[in-house]
Amino acid sequence: MPQNPSSRSGDIAPSRYPGERLGLPEAGPRSVGRAGRRIGAIVVDWALASVISAAFFRYDPLANILIFAVMQIVFIPTIGGSIGHRLFGMRVVPIRGGWVGVWRPIVRTALLCVVIPALVWDSDQRGFHDKIAGTVLLRA
């Protein structure tokens, strides 16, 4: 008799929605922040960094990236996410709960600035930068 493929040891059943494997709800507060919100948040953050860069550094691309990074590193542990995250009703939290700390925003931001890790997502819609930092972006 054929064995059910999902019952083999070591196999993980497919998720019905992003965040299910993490024990998160499908929708509403504490659900995984979806792509639209994430993209909107990063556009807001990049625009703010661009305005600051233009005002003080004549829009120097390196200054723009550094300003963006500093905003992420400062605001994630202090207000729970970047300005864009908060405007789009999201927050960054560690998978295991508690305070996000200092090192997670630094690691997450360094990988986010490289761009490629942010484009590689898993079935829970967590970017590689979130997986490495042990964080998840949730709806507030």
UniProtKB/TrEMBL annotation:
Pfam families linked to this entry: RDD
Topology in membrane: Multi-pass membrane protein
Subcellular location: Cell membrane
Keywords assigned: Cell membrane, Membrane, Transmembrane, Transmembrane helix
Region (Disordered): 1-32
Sequence ranges assigned to domain RDD in this UniProt record: 62-134
Transmembrane region(s): 39-59, 65-88, 100-121
Protein name in the entry: RDD family protein
Organism field: Leifsonia williamsii
